[in-house]
Amino acid sequence: MAAPPSRRRQAPFLIGLVLILAALPVGWFVFLREPPAPLPPPEPPRVATPVEVKKAVELVLSSFEGSVDVKHGEAGAWMPATKDMPLRPTDVVRTGRGSWAVVLNGEAVELRMEAETEVSVAELSDQLSEFLLNNGMATATVRGRPNVRHTFILKAKGAEAEASTAQGTFTMSNNGKGTVSVGTRDGDVKLSDKEGRYVIVRAGQQSIVRPGQGPSKPAPIPSTVFLKMEWPAAKQTKGEVVIAGRTDPGSRVMVAGASVPTDEEGRFKLTLPLNQGPNPIQVSAMGVGGAHQTEQQVLTFETPPPPKPPKPVIFKPETEGLFK
């Protein structure tokens, strides 16, 4: 039996409706869905970066004059220095009477040691140079370099004081008894003590650390050095004499070419042997600013003549009246 005409007309409509409904998910997936993010490009092959090898710190005894000795470590034996002698941490350098020496740390640091000065090497690296001024006087010049920060530290043995700078020139004196003086010629220097107290010593200023005290307030470096002598009598009858005087605290004193320590007030005293006849005695004082002052006196030693022997006593016999 044939289907009614109305059903035959509805069949294509239903088939089309089914096809449209079936195509909706496909259309959404093809046209409306957000496309996935593109995959990242493959990473280029890694190339190993060569490790930068730091240049070894080269500390050398660049130049010197007179008697200069070096020892390796505190327990080492003193040996005569040689030009361009390499130095390493724990090494010690000392200068004799009338001598000087210059130590170089590449292009970063120059340390000049005055006569009768002893310095120990504490630490060396690209960023830090640390030395110990055992006694005497030394001048440090620290040169700044682009993109390189190098800190220089000079500690004073027996005083627990230290001076540090990244660029500049300064002089430190250490009497070995707790009194330290620092004078700055260029740049800024931080002077501190073991308690953490510190001052900034700028160019043209000086500061002093005394036993049990913090750094003094920075003051202008005097253009002259105070030196007052207590000279003994010009004529001496003994083979030795006491030389005494006073200078600015922290100044370096030399008597007849020998270094003489001063106390915290700048007083000094030395017993000096005399030769027969005239003895020219020269006393000089040098401040951390470089100023000098000199006094001189001639002391004449004359050995007293030996005492004259006593006259012999002549005994006369008393015979008068015995033979009457």
What is the share of helical residues? Answer: under 10%
What general outline do the C-alpha atoms trace?
A: rod-shaped
Would you give the CATH topology of the largest domain? Jelly Rolls
For the record, the CATH class of the largest domain is: Mainly Beta
CATH architecture of the largest domain: Sandwich
As a percent range, the share of strand residues is over 45%
What is the C-alpha radius of gyration, as a whole number of Å?
Answer: 44 Å
Domain count, please report it.
Answer: 2
Distance between the termini: 222 Å
- Main β sheet profile: 5 strands, mixed, barrel
Based on secondary structure, the structural category is mainly beta
Quick structural overview:
The chain is mostly beta strands. The protein contains one helix and 24 strands.
Structural features, described:
It contains one helix and 24 strands. It has 324 residues and is mainly beta. It has two domains: 59-220, Jelly Rolls (Sandwich), CATH 2.60.120; 227-301, Immunoglobulin-like (Sandwich). The strands form three sheets. A five-stranded mixed barrel has the order 9-10-11-13-12. A five-stranded mixed beta sheet has the order 18-24-23-20-21, with no helix packed on it. Strand 6 (100-105) and strand 7 (109-113) form a beta hairpin. The longest helix is centred in the first third of the chain and has 28 residues, at 5-32. The N and C termini lie far apart (222 Å). Residues 51-56 have low confidence and may be disordered.
